[in-house]
Amino acid sequence: MNQTTRFERAQLAQGGAIEIDRLGVRLGAGAQAFDAVQDVSLAIAPGEFVCVLGPSGCGKSTLLGALAGHWTPSRGSIRVDGAPVAGPHPDRGLVFQQHTLFPWKKVLDNVAFGLKMQGVGRRERRERARELLGLVGLAGFEDRYPVQLSGGMQQRVEIARVLINHPRVMLMDEPFGALDAQTRLKMQELLLDVWTRVNTTIVFITHDIDEALFLADRILVMSPRPGRIIDDIRLDFERPRHPDLMTSHHFTRLKRHCLDLLHPQASITPLARLSPLGPP
Amino acid sequence: MDTTAPRTLDPPLLRRTGRLLLRALSLGACVAAWQWAATHHVDLGLVTFQNVPSPGDVYDAAAALLESPRLVLHLKASVGRVFAGFAAAGVAGIVLGLVIGRSRLLEDVLLPPLEMLRPIPAVAWIPLAILMFPSSELSMVFITFIGALFPILLGTIHGAEGADPRLVASSRSLGAGRWTIFTEVILPAAAPNIVTGLSIGMGTAWFCLVTAEMISGQFGIGYYTWAAYTIQNYPDIVVGMLLIGVIGMGSSALVKKLGDLAMPWHHMQRTKR
Lengths: 280, 273
Prior knowledge:
The complex is a heterodimer. Chain A is of the alpha/beta class. In chain A, 32% of the residues lie in helices and 21% in strands. Chain A has a single domain (6-101, 168-267), classed as P-loop containing nucleotide triphosphate hydrolases (Rossmann fold), CATH 3.40.50.300. Chain A is built from 9 helices and 10 strands. In chain A, α5 packs across α6. Chain A is globular. The longest helix of chain B is centred in the first third of the chain and has 33 residues, at 70-102. The two termini of chain B are 23 Å apart. Chain B has one domain (67-265): Orthogonal Bundle (MetI-like fold). Chains A and B meet through β6 and α4 of A and α7, α8 and α12 of B.
């Protein structure tokens, strides 16, 4: 996996810069309509790895859907590299939590789908798909159907399927949320490894604080609905990162901080401080 | 687990043979009851077996038909009609079903008239079919078409409506356009339901065969059955009925089997659940 593949050499595009200006997204129709996202402004630098952390139902998936071009903003604007987002585009690859591989296509053809849409010939697209499957550690599984793979393997295929389009931005909606803890950690390490080889900006949605702290350059914390950004945390942990990081002092302090933001009531009645010297 | 069972006998295999045997016995018992009722001219008041041919008579009639060179002609004529009607219904049902399933506007425009035509039985179409088509051959194909259309149409609509929106969203993000979403996502997602519709439609096409071949003709199993009735040749009626039943069941199963071969992934999903 340490060789430079043709895929990496072909990666000329840089990661995209994202600018979101006072974005509002209204979902539903008529009396059921509600503001899923309200007044969100942020800027993401090219190649940055940003995690959006928030309680479930806070509108973080809606934010991602708007970035992908599946939702139209009701207010404000989204720009990627200066151009307004007008709809879905392969430049902004989207990875869901699970079950979005085409069940009727073999793994290789799932990965090659983006190239097929570009009109690349069958022989070439299969060759390039094979290369990408190697990059995510799935060489030898080309002819399986998705249903024959484990959850973690399916997510590897999802990632390869998006990467084949050389996206400038990769949008990930709790991609590892359905995996068991062991597999999730493995996938997080794999994603970081892949990210160092491809120049892409990643926006990663999660409600798992450990995951956000382990992966990101920067964490945006969202409030419950309607979602707004309530904190912007920059992480300066060294890369490459190792799971040992999760037990470091700095890491746990930041985790405490995130917990306080997500569950404010937890800090209302702090436990009495235990000290060998007795109460202060 | 039963460890005392002898190793040479595979329990699942044994169970399967047992069920097969039971089914064969059930069929045999039905034939025996029929034989008994027919030979004793049982009269139950509401139902009477006075004029019902016995299995023996039917067997003789079937043997006579099997030896006659007309059987091949009858089969050829009927199979040709059913498959022509079925093929036309397949194309129309799948195309209409896909657009109705995916477009609200087309659903509003196309579905109400189709829903109104659906409950009309094939036999009621006979006069119009004769008036509308230049040849009686086409009228007969039209009747089998009517029989096959609605199961295929409804199966396709159901499948197209049920296509996972996340798969559609994924394909759009991967660069699929409006048309490719149809061919690459909606159609394969609806395929299992389409195959079920086709399989049922094949059965209903045969179901309408006697009706179709009442129109006219010289050959055809439905015509053979209907002609036997008009000349009061009762054993031949039952031979015709059984022939249609067996061929209808067989071709319906064939459609299902071909569908399974074309969709190995669907079979795997089902067995995993």
